[in-house]
Write a structure and sequence with these properties.
Chain A: Keywords: Acetylation, Fatty acid metabolism, Lipid metabolism, Lyase, Membrane, Methylation, Mitochondrion, Mitochondrion inner membrane, Multifunctional enzyme, NAD, Oxidoreductase, Phosphoprotein, Signal, Transferase, Transit peptide. The structure holds two protein chains of two kinds. Chain A is built from 31 helices and 19 strands. By secondary structure, chain A is an alpha/beta fold. At the A-B interface, helix 9 of A face helix 8, helix 13 and helix 14 of B.
């Protein structure tokens, strides 16, 4: 961030110094076409430096009478422009500063849009955010079909909006529905889709080996095609506007009625409110900007865009989301270095939901994987799960059927330990029972080679207890995956004090290869994630016992920003698992983990209400039915465990804070005890593993923005009624005492 | 002969030098030819049977949908087999085995080798099987024959290939097939009616066979266009090469060099005795065509691609002993051969580049030893890309694990009687045409060694060294 402060100062002082050598943008004149190449020494972003050099170059090109048209291309193989420079925005301290940045960008792109010489954006690799806004200001766009080529406006995921004309140009280019979809979801659009939508005009295939490397030659080829197109545009051989199809004409006609547009704004607004519960300001501001542009004209539209961009940049939601983005980048790196031996052969024990999920995310990364189960039925079910997971991807066209088959060739299903002597790592995902885990560990250690790592997938059993029977505890590590493994991004890796650094490095390397975001935590009952979740669920049970309906409980939690309500979450996790964990952690941590009555959970399990997997839990699940009804039988059980709520701490807001504060306090305690290495991993683990509200950025960011003192105050109030379950931990008290103390700088 | 020599003199002075070399060698006075001496005097190996090409023929190659339109694949194959019998005067029961290639299979005659052999009047005691390996199917048929003879199992084998693109199997959709098959099993009227009722309009949409890779779903023309772009082959270069192919083919046809073509009386139609796809055009005309696969900026067009063709070919392969014993004068020795395969996506059509150095190495020859090159021309862009790849040290080192490039064949020795672009390319029949042409060119132009190379779908390739039979 400091660096960019310097840049701003630098660029102001050097604004008139045209002679300074250009490091980010250069150009070459090919006949009557100027080819402008962007080549930031690190990643192409719309940094101050890039913008300054671009402005210079554009002025030279416009002033050169020999140039009839322009091609804009990146020299970077993987990216066109990855977006605006986030640091540039974060360096600003007021909304006005950010608004100014936005207006600079708007002005620059307006000049591009009005260029008398046609400009062709030649896109290979990521064309995101500000990069996309740059491209759509150009007169013509050509993109490669590379897998790396994606177009999109991810700003909304950072709590921002496309602040350089995106909210104004996209609706005109794509029509309202497509534009809203793109800007509000932030989804990445692949080249073929982009062509269909009209976002790009022409596609170029990627090339294989030739007389140069495929990457290099593909960029060259893209440039050749773009130069030809630029010439065609200048000579008016290629029309700038495509003849509109009938559907397009009809849509345009319909959209020309103000009440139709109004209807769309309302529908979109409602949908956004339903999905965000009003907790995320960015989508609403985006709708506002689009509306301003279409209904009041471009001047009002651009003004609304720049001002709202400035406002959004200052919101805690945006800061939280940007924090998560940075955290995610950090957790996609291996801080333990490169392992001595790469894991090429993996064995997974247990073909249940978890085991098969782990196998699925391994085989499609080219890791040879043995999936072992004890019964043919179990194995068959597991292999089917892997097949289905991959086959569903072929239906979505993200992989071909050939790729599916070739991935599946990495999978070997078996009932015996054949081939384990060649395994580099074994991940066991058998039933959560210490004696079974011990039995498996001993069996496996008898057949694996000395270098092989034994990883155990458990959500609560301490790793050191499992490793107790190991002959080589330095090779034992915990790898806690989240269900469903192919969808959940988080992997929690647990090390004991005996786990070697190389074992950790290896486990992280495997997780990264599997596409996971990784936190590495210390050993202990429940590690980090389960330990945070358990007190919150205990509180949720108490709230149910106090007579709050499961639907109400769900709406209170989702209203706070959790993507899944507490009652639904319990059903997803499994009531039996919740009971099991609550009991285990209750034994380990004592009354602090109390709250709801475990007996209630046990009665549920006895009745067979184990949650979604058994068809009944807090809710009734019927295959093919999206609507869920509350399980009235569960309510009957609740009757016998009924508690009288204390009116002083039972308002909606109180219930929300009772749930959240126990979660947050436990998270901070984990950092205090050294289970967590840093607050960043704590935030990432809570958001990506447990669905902690992303708009709050994780428990630590929440303490920073909410104020530790205010949180402690609330907890003290609850403590008076419930005792030590709400006693703030020391680290939280320290932060409450000294407001300058922050978990995130 | 004189006129032929004159033609070759006009077309390329080098050829006449070779003719002189050949004459000199056949006289046994190779003293003054030290500088251009071959790396090896012969490829005969002690203890290995010499296997010879006695003769080879083919039906005229016709654009699909023309005069052959109403035939079936085995009709064409029969014509080639009968033509071979006529040409060689071979007693029908002297053949030990028949191997035939085909790519797009007619389901009624799935072992087309057997159906054609029976129809051509071969003894019903002669077994026959069909092989398939895309555009190198008849190469596979020939090398299978070589294998049978080398292993001492056979002495005389007929190999060949047929492709019939005028009619291809178009299937009902999978859903429709399923319904129809269930219908067979349905016992009651009710069951049948309910099955019939389940048919939807969409189920009636047929499935067409595509010339596309199964693994990548990319059509071959699309891949060829990308390959040309990868090697920086321009549209102009491709059109020039295509024009060359047609011009040379026309010249060869007019001067009667395509002696492997037999006449074929098509039932209900006239006798056909010439290929009908040879159309030398002008560069201007060719430049007008729009790209056929990658639009709008692609370079592969209908004019610089091989066209869909009907045709069949056949060769008689024997052990040298047997051939001589039967009183034949063989045309050539079939020597070392290789099959290669590589990435079916980005290197689909680079077979010749991979196969050429490998087969040369195997036989102990260098590119300079080869007097006659016959490469299968799938697309002009594909040939030009292969030539560039063979000329590139970087490509040889980066992708083939070789120290140096093999070098590109000199154009004056290359496909000088036309190629698949102009003569036509009935997929499974092309291999025999290439081998027979090499034998004929070695005889006519003079020379000792010839090289056949071809690419094939699936990212596979083949090359074979052929040695002239001493005259």
């Amino acid at each position: 961030v400091k660096l960019f402060h310097v840049f701003i100062v630098f660029s102001f002082s050097c604004l008139l110094d045209v002679s300074s050598a250009r490091t980010h943008v250069n150009y070459e004149i090919k006949g009557d076409v100027a080819v402008i190449r962007m080549n930031d020494p690190s990643v192409n972003t719309l940094s101050v430096q890039m913008q300054r050099e671009m402005t210079e170059v554009m002025d030279e090109v416009w002033g050169n009478s020999a140039v009839q048209s322009v091609v804009l291309i990146s020299s970077k193989p993987g990216s066109f422009i990855a977006g605006a420079d986030l640091n540039m925005i974060q360096a600003c301290t007021t909304a006005e500063e950010v608004t100014l940045l936005s207006q600079e960008g708007q002005k620059m792109f307006e000049k591009i849009e009005k260029s008398p010489k046609p400009i062709v954006a030649a896109i290979n690799g990521s064309c995101l955010g500000g990069g996309l806004e740059f491209a759509i200001a150009c007169q013509y766009r050509i993109a490669t079909k590379s897998k790396k080529t994606v177009l999109g406006c991810p700003e909304v995921m950072l709590g921002l909006l496309p602040g350089a004309g995106g909210t104004q140009r996209l609706p005109k280019m794509l029509g309202l529905p497509s534009a809203f979809d793109m800007v509000l979801t932030g989804r990445s659009i692949r080249p073929d889709k982009a062509k269909k939508m009209g976002l790009v005009h022409q596609l170029v295939d990627t090339l294989g080996p030739g007389l140069k490397s495929p990457e290099e030659r593909t960029i060259e080829y893209l440039e050749e095609v773009a130069v030809e197109a630029a010439r065609g545009l200048a000579k008016k051989q290629i029309p700038l506007t495509k003849e509109k199809g009938l559907m397009q004409k009809i849509q345009d006609h319909v959209m020309s009625y103000p009440f139709v547009r109004q209807q769309i704004y309302n529908t979109v607004q409602k949908k956004v409110m339903k999905q965000t519960k009003g907790l995320y300001p960015a989508p609403l501001k985006i709708i506002e900007c689009v509306k301003a542009g279409l209904e009041q004209g471009p001047t009002a539209g651009y003004l609304a865009e720049s001002q709202n961009f400035g406002k959004l940049a200052m919101t805690p939601e945006s800061k939280a989301l940007i924090g998560l983005y940075h955290g995610q980048v950090t957790c996609k790196k291996n801080r333990f270095g490169t392992p001595e031996k790469e894991v090429k052969a993996l064995a997974v024990l247990g073909a249940g939901l978890m085991g098969a999920g782990i196998a699925q995310v391994s085989v499609d990364k080219g890791i040879h994987t043995i999936l072992k189960d004890t019964t043919l039925e179990g194995l068959s079910r597991g292999e089917q799960q892997v097949y289905k997971g991959l086959n569903d991807k072929t239906k979505k066209k993200s992989i071909t059927t050939f790729e599916r088959d070739s991935f599946l060739s990495n999978l070997t299903g078996q009932l015996d330990y054949n081939g384990f002597n060649k395994a580099d790592m074994v991940i066991e995902a058998v039933f959560e029972d210490l004696s079974i885990k011990h039995k498996v560990l001993k069996e496996v250690e008898a057949v694996i080679p000395p270098h092989c790592i034994f990883a155990t997938n458990t959500s609560a059993l301490p790793i050191k207890d499992i490793a107790a029977v190991s002959k080589r505890p330095e090779k034992v590590i915990g790898m806690h995956y989240f269900s469903p493994v192919d969808k959940m991004q988080l992997l929690e890796i647990i090390t004991t004090d005996k786990t070697s650094k190389d074992t950790t490095a290896s486990a992280v390397a495997v997780g990264l290869k599997q596409g996971k975001v990784i936190i590495v935590v210390g050993d202990g009952p429940g590690f980090y994630t389960t330990r945070c979740l358990a007190p919150m669920l205990a509180e949720a049970v108490r709230v149910l016992q106090e007579g709050v309906d499961p639907k109400k409980l769900d709406s209170l939690t989702t209203g706070f920003g959790f993507p899944v309500g507490a009652a639904t979450l319990a059903d997803e996790v499994g009531i039996d698992v919740a009971a099991h964990v609550a009991e285990d952690l209750g034994k380990a941590f004592g009354s602090r983990f109390g709250g709801g009555n475990i007996e209630f959970l046990k009665s549920m399990v006895d009745k067979g209400f184990k949650g979604r997997k058994s068809g009944k839990g807090c809710y009734i699940y019927q295959p093919g039915l999206k609507r869920r009804d509350v399980n009235t039988e569960a309510l009957e059980i609740l009757e016998s465990y009924k508690l009288t709520p204390n009116a002083a701490i039972s308002s909606d807001s109180d219930i929300q804070y009772r749930l959240v504060s126990r979660f947050v306090n436990e998270a901070v305690l984990c950092l205090q005890e050294g289970i967590l290495a840093n607050p960043v991993e704590g935030d990432i683990g809570a958001v990506f593993g447990l669905g902690f509200p992303p708009c709050l950025g994780g428990p630590f960011r929440f303490v920073d923005s909410f104020g530790a003192d205010k949180l402690v105050e609330k907890m003290r109030k609850f403590e008076e009624v419930f005792g030590n379950q709400f006693t703030p931990c020391q680290l939280l008290l320290d932060h409450a005492k000294d407001p300058s103390k922050k978990f995130h700088k | 002969m004189a006129s032929m020599l004159l033609t070759s003199l006009r077309s390329s002075p080098l050829t006449s030098v070779q003719a002189a070399q050949f004459a000199a060698r056949s006289l046994g006075t190779s003293v003054h030819l030290q500088a251009q001496a071959k790396s090896k005097k012969t490829l005969a190996k002690p203890g290995v049977k010499n296997i010879v090409l006695v003769d080879g023929v083919r039906t005229p190659f016709l654009q699909s949908g023309t005069i052959y339109a109403d035939l079936m694949p085995h009709d064409l194959a029969r014509a080639a087999l009968q033509g071979l019998l006529n040409r060689t005067g071979l007693p029908k029961d002297a053949v030990d085995y028949i191997v035939y290639g085909t790519v797009i299979q007619e389901v009624k005659t799935s072992n087309v080798a057997r159906e054609a052999a029976l129809g051509a009047g071969f003894s019903d005691k002669t077994p026959a099987h069909t092989v398939t390996m895309a555009c190198i199917s008849s190469n596979q048929a020939m090398t299978t024959a070589v294998g049978l003879i080398a292993a001492g199992q056979c002495d005389a084998v007929v190999a060949g290939g047929v492709e019939f693109m005028s009619d291809v199997p178009i299937r009902h959709s999978r859903r429709m097939r399923k319904t129809m098959l269930s219908l067979n099993k349905a016992k009651t009227l009710g069951a049948r009616l309910s099955l019939l009722g389940s048919i939807r309009l969409a189920h009636l949409a047929p499935e067409l066979p595509a010339v596309a890779e199964f693994s990548t779903a990319e059509t071959m023309g699309h891949s060829a266009d990308r390959l040309a772009a990868a090697f920086g082959v321009s549209r102009l270069e491709q059109d020039e090469f295509a024009l060359r192919s047609h011009t040379l083919a026309k010249k060869a046809q007019d001067s009667g060099l395509l002696s492997d073509v037999i006449s074929f009386k098509v039932p209900g139609k006239d006798i056909v005795s010439k290929d009908n796809g040879i159309r030398p055009s002008t560069m201007e005309q060719m430049a007008k065509l729009k790209p056929a696969f990658i639009k709008p900026h692609g370079t592969v067009t209908a004019a610089n691609s091989s066209f869909l063709t009907d045709g069949a070919s056949a060769v008689l392969i024997m052990s040298e002993e047997k051939a001589l014993a039967m009183g034949y004068k063989p045309k050539a020795y079939l020597r070392d051969f290789v099959y290669v395969s590589q990435d079916p996506k980005d290197q689909l059509l680079l077979g010749p580049t991979y196969a050429t150095p490998k087969v040369l190495e195997k036989s102990g020859l260098t590119l300079n030893d080869i007097d006659v090159f016959e490469f299968h021309e799938a697309f002009a862009g594909q040939i030009m890309a292969n030539l560039k790849a063979m000329e590139s040290d970087w490509f040889a080192q980066t992708y083939m694990g070789r120290k140096t490039k093999v070098g590109a064949p000199p154009m004056e020795k290359f496909n000088s009687w036309g190629g698949s672009l102009s003569l036509g390319h009935p997929f499974a029949a092309t291999g025999c045409r290439l081998v027979t042409t090499v034998a004929h060119r070695l005889q006519k132009e003079g020379g000792q060694y010839g090289l056949v190379a071809a690419c094939a779908a699936g990212g596979q390739g083949h090359a074979m060294v052929i040695e002239a039979y001493p005259q």
